[in-house]
Structures are given as C-alpha cells and as structure tokens.
Amino acid sequence: MKKPYVFITRKLSEQIVSSLKEKYDVNMWEHESTPVPRETLLNEVKKATALITMLSEKIDEELLEAGRNLQVVANLAVGYDNIDVQAATKKGIAICNTPDVLTDTTADLTFALLMATARRIIEAAEVVKKGEWKSWSPFLLAGHDIHHKTIGIVGMGSIGEAVAKRAKGFDMNILYHNRSRKPEAEKSLGAKYCSFEDLIQQADFIVCLTPLTPDTKKLFNREAFNKMKKSAIFINASRGPVVDEKALYEALVEGEIAAAGLDVFETEPIGADHPLLSLQNVVALPHIGSATRETREAMMQLCVENVDRVLSGKSPKTLVNKAWEKQKV
Ligand code: DGY
User: Fold this and answer.
1) Are residues 91 and 69 in the same domain?
2) From ligand 1's centre to the CA of 48, what distance in Å?
3) In the predicted model, is pLDDT for residue 328 greater than 90?
C-alpha cells in the first residue's frame, strides 16, 4: 500500500525524520536557514497528506486548495497567525500547534530580554569586548532596576503566567491585561487585572505576549507609546505586527519611553539597516523565544504525534481548529 506523503518545510533533527520515515513517505526542505520557496511548497502540497510547517510559511487558501489530499498541518510554533485556520476548517484539514512544551522556555527568554534591556547587558558586554572599558565609574552603563518595579503583561496565556511567576521572584508588582480574567494567577501570583489603558500608564515594564489577530494588529501604536511612562521599557516576544514599528522608533527617539527589547519584528528577518537597529536603547533578537535544544526537540516530537494521530483517525493532541473535530463526528 502506498504510504502517506509527509512534507517538512525545514530541516528537522535526524531522529525525528527517521521516526517519520518508519511510517510515511517523507520529503524535507533540507536547508536550515532559508525557507522553502513558495513554488516548491505549492508543488509539494499537491502530493502531501500531512505538512509540518514553520511560522515562516504562509499557509493560505491557495496553498490549502492545492492540497487535494491534505489532512493535517502541524505548525512548529504555538502561534498560528501564518495559517488561514478558517479555510483549513472548511476543507476539513486539522491544524495543530505546539503549546505547553515551550511555555517555560519562552518565558525564560522573555525575562532574559527584559533583564538584558533594563541592565544594558548587550551594550556592556560590547564595551568590554571592544576594549572600551577604561575604569569603574558610578554611572558607567547604569540601567534600570527590575526588582520591586511594576510589570504589565499584555496577553496572559500560559507564557504570560510563566513570565508573571518569574516576576514574582523579583518582588515585582504584577499587572495584566487579557481577554478573560485569570482568577488562579490573581490568587497564586498576586497579579492584578486592569484595562489596557491603565496597564500601559502604570507599568515600568510593558511585556507584549498577546497573539497576533485582527484585533491586536498595531495595538502598540503612537498613542499607546505616548501614554507610557518616559522611563517605561517595552518588551515584545509575541509577534512583530502587534507593534507599529515606526511609532516605536519615534517613541524611543523622542524619549517617550526609555528602551525596548524585541524578539520579533513586522518583517522577519529584519533588515540590518532598519532604523530600530541603529538605536542604542534597543535590544534585538532573531525570534528565539522557544529556541533551546530540548524545547525544539519537544516541539518537533509534538508535531509528529499530531500527524500520527490525525493520520490514524484520532484527535490530535493540540488541535487549533476545534470545529474540525465536530465535522469529523
Ligand atoms: C511560537 O511558538 O509561536 C514562537 O514564536 C516560536 O518560537
């Protein structure tokens, strides 16, 4: 019998690929740092029963339409704004993501970025490496305190809660804004729910962890930055388009806020000539929120499990389009 065809859009670990090859006919885009060209993906999807995709691929209606035999798309990310979920549901295709396994790792990176930005760690390390450290001095690379300050978390999902847990360890006052209240986090972490307006006005650290949706696109615009404290530090570890980058640049240049730590950008990879990268008070990372060996392996494993489950007629572990399940019954 012909084995189902699985296409993987980026080089994954040998162990993962071997385990897939036991059951499926597998093909993979072998390059680690360049995304699969759209045309190749469009050709591959015509043969595919399952796709394992990265957030760099646009899984839109045209692509799903071309996937005549496609049953499941397993996205190697918790975010799935790269996928037209509605179109997939209409076509009876299961969409899966990788929540939970990356929660603590992404929270670690978010907090590390907050600390690096507040304490000017990247700048400081550069000074030493370039031989520019002349002597100890009272104001040399003086940054901002983190402990006992107010953190405002916008988007209190699992990662938001894990960041709040870390903030509690730093004796921070924790504010959050979310679509729904989180009574458990309020009780165990002392997190206080507040409106978006109140949060951006009161917080010393504004941490963006909200998913990208039509409602959150450019949520952080000029008006929002203007309302923040002049000493505020803005951290984004969710998706770039949640921020109006031009407005952020202006806010930083005009001293409306103090600094920004960014792991994500409107266009990725961000060009080296992007104005934001010319600013000393910006710490920029190449979207590495969940990038540890252990977590990336766990994410890959979860993708494989989801593919296996759908192709053997079961419900996937982490299904995005719950309506798919109802259609199946
Ligand atoms: C995700 O999982 O959505 C992250 O952004 C990838 O690291």
Assistant:
1) yes
2) 24
3) no
Ligand 1 atom having least distance to the Cα of 291: 7
Interval between CA 79 and ligand 1 midpoint (Å): 6
Global model pTM greater than 0.90: yes
Number of domains, the chain: 2
148 CA to middle of ligand 1, Å? 29
Pocket test residue of 76, 81, 106 for ligand 1, highest count of atoms within 8 A of CB: 106
The domain in which residue 15 lies consists of 5-99+293-328
Residue 34 belongs to a domain with what CATH number? 3.40.50.720
pLDDT at residue 20 tops 70 = yes
- Which residue's C-alpha comes closest to atom 2 of ligand 1? 77
DSSP for 184-239, written as a single string: HHHHHH--EE--HHHHHHH-SEEEE-PPP-TTTTT-B-HHHHHHS-TT-EEEE-S-
The catalytic site residues sit at 239, 268, 287
Instruction: Tell me: pLDDT of 91 over 80.
Output: yes
Q: Are residues 248 and 119 in the same domain?
A: yes
Mean pLDDT of the chain: 97
What is the Cα–Cα distance from 197 to 93, expressed in whole angstroms? 39
284, 302, 320 — which closes off a domain? 284
